[in-house]
Inverse folding.
């Protein structure tokens, strides 16, 4: 249904942050791509570089202290890294919406919800509203903007939208704030929606409601979605394809169904094992160790210090993404021999 | 269940209200949040009771009342037979026995104190005769942290390590009851297991009783011996874990269970049929009459909007509060 | 948990001996100091400020030995060499009575810095304690009494208050300091109060209360260390302000009395010799600027040093 050309194509992206004592080599050659209308999940633990990748794509990384020594980011076939800030603004504004992890930080405490939603809807519609006059060339009246805002709030199951529009963020609970942010993000009917941990502050039943809503809206409008999270269950329900990320590298890419049936990378396996099961059986100890230092990252595969299957080659060389069957790719030397020849 | 294990915590008809402001200019009617509205449950020594609920359910308020942060508006809480609120200030001897691990390790440790100082406080107050340095090293080893972590400040530790310090702190007084308020919710799933398994081991080693609060039902399934579900200040259902997951009775319980995102097909079999919430969560200052769940319940009957159901026992150890089950 | 008695884990059975623990502690302290310095020195200007402050303090302390004409700091006249422009004999020139300006500036620095240190020593401890108490007992009558008192003091225009006090008492440096102190302490009370109220509800304070810690421990061991950062930063910038206020006081005739040198009096007296004998005013004024700048830069560094590193 509709156009499914390549929307984002990231190749070999390196992002470093300058700090005293050197550089934090956060992203170490990230490949990422998605087509229009796809729902892609980006999974990894806190600090693995997921948010940095997204910020790089949207070019909202402050450079300094961030540096992009290598890599290419194509957004709608245009090289993001070479665009001027006004061009980026254009590309971003109408087409991309982002839902942030921390709703409290995303909402300005000194403006009412209504004012903030209006600002968002206005800027996506193109220009300030006119009092009383009807819509013409995309301009919206104040009443229409309010209507849109109320509708968006209702879509995320918030009670009494009119009163909510007059409230300040500080008067709402965390869960309500998150839903307001989601409502705001969807109100502009974006082409690309990036949701960074959309469920964390939500109750499980509300989360379920909201995610189902996201799915419906996404299907209706062919919105492309990038879902960033460390909660595997949501990824399984909401996405078609998944990227698993560890310490600045994509370690496994696959269609969602296949990933959950047959996780290949030891890290992915560790994550899957760590999730407590509804069927019982106790809780696994998880993955020992912690994320490596980005200042002095380990040589070779960045996961090797924590890997239960580490081999000599892992300590010295970084594995490329090996092609397995279907669209399943994994960056691990364990699969060197079983991959199909063409590499990445 | 071991007949000889005593009841270590008995909560009877607990109520906790908060006045958050006043309405109206002339009459100044107080606006009250009824965070906990009459709940009763008991905890056997050595067992883990899971308290599940979403935000606004009152589960944290229950925890904070048991620990002594709040005084009940009504009702009693007895620890080993002693009324916890008999005196205005809880005596040290009782404080020693009941400890808590908070949800957010970032704010439960004083950023200006070293781990040593954090662990010293409970030792100084409750076990002044013990050799403090020894005990600190022992506590750190017990939770799997190296002794030289003593001199680290919280910012140098990862989230998981901070939480381990919080656990060590709770155990420093040699308590018998530990309240765990969402101990792993703020942590990544890859380190959650380590802490949970540590807590389970410590429970077995020292015969601890846990009041385990969480919203994560999959975790609950693997950790508690009994589960209680709370909604808007009241308990909806209590049952032993396996029975609870096998035969959830309350519509809210079923709704919760059916919304959990699981990671495998096998688990999907364990979820009840999908129940979709209709309607919105009422504001806690304006709870509807009758059963507080009636605004969202797909099985709502007329009586539900008028009469608040009472707890009935449907099977041994399984109680539920819903008009679908014969009252009285 | 009497099972612990059976598992008699003593230090002897762990790999650490008491001496090793002491060693560890020393190492940890060193590491901490290193990290604090690293944070301070991230901005080179902070180091410049620190060096400047140290130099100024040394100059003030060793004034009699460092200045070319120490006698000029007292009753001294030499009209033959009055109003000399800056030159080799007198680097900053001489004033209208023939005294060496450089010497007088350094001596003037003495009283300025002394005032800064003494005022802060008088003002900070009570201000901080009152702020902590008001914050800890937030919502009770203690809070109200303390904060309303603070408000009253803050409501009076500071210079008026200082003038009123200074004019009732004999005009000298010590009384000038009293006057300034009286109007300074409420700022610290207010600052600490704001921080304390926020801290009151932090989980780590609750954790300490729940375990049975007394109010004393909570106020001084849990809350106070978290107020250090804003207080120390404010102190380093305040020294500069106290010096300015002190100069203002001596400018209007209170505070340090002639012939003792004071930066403020030097500016007051020398103003009438502008623009021809500009050096009589300009150098003391520059001195004030340098002192203020030095403390401000150092204050920035202190703020960076104490900022929490975040998760």
């Amino acid at each position: 249904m509709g156009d499914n050309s390549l929307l984002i194509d990231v190749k070999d992206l390196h992002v470093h942050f300058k700090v005293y004592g050197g550089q934090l080599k956060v992203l170490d050659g990230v490949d990422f791509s998605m087509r229009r209308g796809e729902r892609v999940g980006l999974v990894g633990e806190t600090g693995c570089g997921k948010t940095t990748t997204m910020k790089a794509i949207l070019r909202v990384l402050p450079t300094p202290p961030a540096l992009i020594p290598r890599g290419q980011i194509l957004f709608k076939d245009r090289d993001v890294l070479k665009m001027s800030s006004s061009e980026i603004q254009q590309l971003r504004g109408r087409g991309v919406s982002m839902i942030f992890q921390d709703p409290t930080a995303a909402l300005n405490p000194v403006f009412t919800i209504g004012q903030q939603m209006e600002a968002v809807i206005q800027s996506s519609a193109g220009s300030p509203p006119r009092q009383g006059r009807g819509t013409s060339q995309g301009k919206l009246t104040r009443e229409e903007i309010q209507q849109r805002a109320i509708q968006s709030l209702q879509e995320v199951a918030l009670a009494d939208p009119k009163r909510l529009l007059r409230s300040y963020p500080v008067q709402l609970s965390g869960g309500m704030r998150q839903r307001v942010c989601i409502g705001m993000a969807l109100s502009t009917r974006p082409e690309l929606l990036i949701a960074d941990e959309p469920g964390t502050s939500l109750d499980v039943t509300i989360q379920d409601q909201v995610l189902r809503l996201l799915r419906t809206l996404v299907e209706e409008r062919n919105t492309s979605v990038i879902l960033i999270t460390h909660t595997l269950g949501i990824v399984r329900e909401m996405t078609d394809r998944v990227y698993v990320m560890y310490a600045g590298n994509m370690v496994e890419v696959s269609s969602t169904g296949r990933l959950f049936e047959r996780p290949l990378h030891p890290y992915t396996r560790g994550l899957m094992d760590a999730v407590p099961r509804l069927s019982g059986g106790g809780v696994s100890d998880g993955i020992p160790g912690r994320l490596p230092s980005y200042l002095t990252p380990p040589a070779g595969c960045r996961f090797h210090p924590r890997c239960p299957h580490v081999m000599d080659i892992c300590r010295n060389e970084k594995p490329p993404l090996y092609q397995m069957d279907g669209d399943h790719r994994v960056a691990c030397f364990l699969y060197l021999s079983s991959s199909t020849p063409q590499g990445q | 269940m071991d007949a000889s294990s005593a009841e270590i915590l008995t909560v009877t008809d607990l109520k906790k209200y908060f006045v958050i402001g006043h309405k109206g200019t002339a009459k100044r009617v107080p606006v009250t949040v009824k965070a906990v509205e009459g709940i009763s449950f008991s905890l056997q020594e050595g067992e883990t009771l899971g308290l599940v609920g979403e935000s606004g359910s009152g589960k944290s308020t229950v925890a904070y009342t048991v620990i002594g942060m709040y005084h009940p508006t009504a009702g009693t809480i007895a620890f080993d037979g002693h009324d916890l609120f008999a005196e205005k200030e809880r005596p040290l001897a009782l404080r020693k026995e009941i400890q808590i691990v908070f949800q957010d390790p970032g704010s439960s440790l004083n950023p200006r104190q070293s781990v040593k100082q954090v662990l010293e406080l409970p030792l100084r107050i409750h076990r002044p005769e013990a050799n403090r340095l020894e005990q600190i090293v022992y506590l750190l080893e017990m939770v799997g942290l190296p002794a030289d972590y003593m001199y680290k400040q919280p910012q140098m530790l990862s989230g998981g390590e901070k939480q381990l310090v919080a656990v060590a702190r709770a155990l420093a007084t040699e308590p018998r009851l530990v309240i765990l308020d969402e101990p792993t919710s703020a942590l990544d799933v890859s380190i959650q297991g380590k802490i949970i398994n540590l807590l389970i081991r410590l429970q077995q080693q020292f015969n601890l009783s846990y009041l385990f609060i969480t919203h994560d039902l999959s975790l609950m399934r693997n950790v508690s011996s009994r589960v209680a579900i709370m909604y808007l200040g009241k308990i909806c259902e209590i049952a032993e874990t396996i029975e609870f997951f096998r035969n959830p009775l309350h519509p809210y319980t079923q709704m919760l269970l059916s919304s959990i995102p699981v990671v495998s097909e096998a688990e999907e079999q364990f979820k009840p049929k999908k129940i979709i919430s209709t309607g919105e969560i009422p504001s806690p200052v304006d709870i509807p009459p009758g059963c507080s769940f009636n605004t969202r319940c797909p099985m709502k009957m007329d009586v539900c909007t008028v009469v608040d159901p009472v707890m009935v026992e449907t099977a041994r150890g399984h109680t539920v509060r819903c008009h679908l089950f014969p009252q009285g | 948990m009497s099972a612990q008695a059976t598992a008699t884990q003593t230090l002897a059975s762990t790999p650490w001996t008491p001496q090793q623990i002491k060693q560890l502690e020393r190492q940890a302290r060193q590491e901490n100091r290193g990290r604090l310095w690293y944070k301070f020195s991230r901005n080179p200007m902070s180091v410049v400020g620190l060096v400047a402050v140290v130099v100024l303090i040394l100059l003030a302390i060793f004034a009699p030995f460092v200045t070319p004409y120490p006698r000029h700091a007292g009753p001294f006249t030499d009209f033959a060499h009055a109003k000399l422009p800056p030159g080799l004999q007198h680097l900053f020139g001489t004033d209208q009575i023939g005294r060496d300006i450089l010497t007088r500036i350094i001596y003037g620095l003495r009283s300025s810095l002394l005032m800064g240190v003494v005022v802060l020593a008088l003002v900070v401890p009570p201000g901080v304690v009152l702020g902590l108490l008001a914050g800890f007992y937030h919502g009770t009558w203690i809070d109200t009494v303390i904060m309303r008192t603070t408000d009253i003091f803050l409501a009076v225009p500071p210079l008026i208050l200082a003038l009123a006090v200074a004019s009732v008492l004999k005009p000298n440096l010590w009384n000038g300091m009293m006057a300034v102190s009286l109007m300074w302490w409420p700022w610290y009370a207010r600052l600490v109060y704001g921080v304390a109220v926020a801290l009151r509800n932090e989980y780590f304070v609750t954790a300490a209360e729940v375990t049975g810690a007394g109010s004393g421990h909570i106020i001084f061991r849990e809350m106070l260390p978290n107020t250090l950062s804003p207080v120390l930063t404010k102190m380093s910038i305040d020294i500069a302000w106290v010096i300015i206020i002190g100069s203002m006081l001596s400018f209007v005739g209170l505070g340090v009395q002639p012939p003792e040198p004071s930066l403020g009096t030097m500016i007051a007296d020398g103003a009438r010799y502008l623009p021809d004998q500009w050096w009589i005013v300009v150098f003391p004024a520059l001195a004030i600027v340098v002192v203020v700048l030095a403390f401000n830069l150092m204050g920035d560094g202190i703020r960076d040093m104490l900022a929490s590193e975040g998760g």
Summary: Chain C has a mean pLDDT of 84. Chain C has one domain: 35-306. Residues 4 and 10 of chain C are 11 Å apart (CA to CA). The longest helix of chain C spans residues 215-251.
